[in-house]
Amino acid sequence: MPKSKRDKKVSLTKTNKKGLLLKQKIIEEIRNSLSKYEHIFLFTVDNMRNTKLKDLRNDWKDSRFFFGKNKVMAVALGRTKSDEIEEQLNLVSKRLKGQCGLLMTNRDVIEVLQWFKDFRAAEYARAGFIATKDVILPQGPLEDFSHTIEPHLRRLGLPTSLERGVINLIKEYQVCKKGVALTPEQASILKLLGIQMAKFKLVIKCHWTKGKGFHKDLDVLSDQETDNENDNDVVEDEDMEEDES
């Protein structure tokens, strides 16, 4: 009787014993999940936040998310037509590039696509994020801040002084400019001001259905893929939080 491709042992080089066991575990779990779920969706992530990914798992308890090394997930599915676990899964593997993950589910395809199209979560921008608007602070008191934070504000570059226990901005200050990448200091100031410019979102790029095969869902680049293309620096294998569900 021929041996199932699901049971095929995979050689993973250039890794220590602990790392090897972890990679083998991910491969085994992905392959075992193939028998439980009808659909596999490949998605990219804009403004990745691990806390948001944990929230997603709670919303999709009947499904399974996988995040980790793209190359390991590709091995689990099969990188070529000759070693793919199911027909046309190699077409999914070939698209595992950058910051992305897999969703395995039995929910209806239309429901999944619509859910992810609608899903957005505001987040604080980090250094390197392209500012979406100008933020200018007028001269005068910053009454929302405790006086104890004044030295920290000065370290971040704000021209402040402490007058009768109230932080005062000595002159007008532009925190950031629309279209320009944020510095670490600017990102910290925006967070202190409670201004959330970033949007955490997942973009479905393609899906695979048991018995039907591969389907491309989107040719348009996500926000961060566009940034990478512009910088000529497309990340091939980005680490994400490993699957915990």
Automatic annotation (TrEMBL):
MF terms (GO), sorted A to Z: RNA binding
Keyword terms: Cytoplasm, Nucleus, Ribosome biogenesis
GO cellular component: cytoplasm; nucleolus; preribosome, large subunit precursor
InterPro entries per the UniProt record, alphabetical: Mrt4, Ribosomal_uL10, Ribosomal_uL10-like_insert, Ribosomal_uL10-like_insert_sf, Ribosomal_uL10-like_sf, Ribosome_Assembly_uL10
Record carries keyword Nucleus: yes
Residue ranges occupied by any Large ribosomal subunit protein uL10-like insertion domain in the UniProt entry: 125-195
GO term, biological process aspect, one: ribosomal large subunit assembly
Record's subunit section: Associates with the pre-60S ribosomal particle.
Family recorded in the similarity comment: Belongs to the universal ribosomal protein uL10 family.
Chain's role: Component of the ribosome assembly machinery. Nuclear paralog of the ribosomal protein P0, it binds pre-60S subunits at an early stage of assembly in the nucleolus, and is replaced by P0 in cytoplasmic pre-60S subunits and mature 80S ribosomes.
Name assigned to this protein: Ribosome assembly factor mrt4
Biological classification of the source: Eukaryota, Metazoa, Ecdysozoa, Arthropoda, Hexapoda
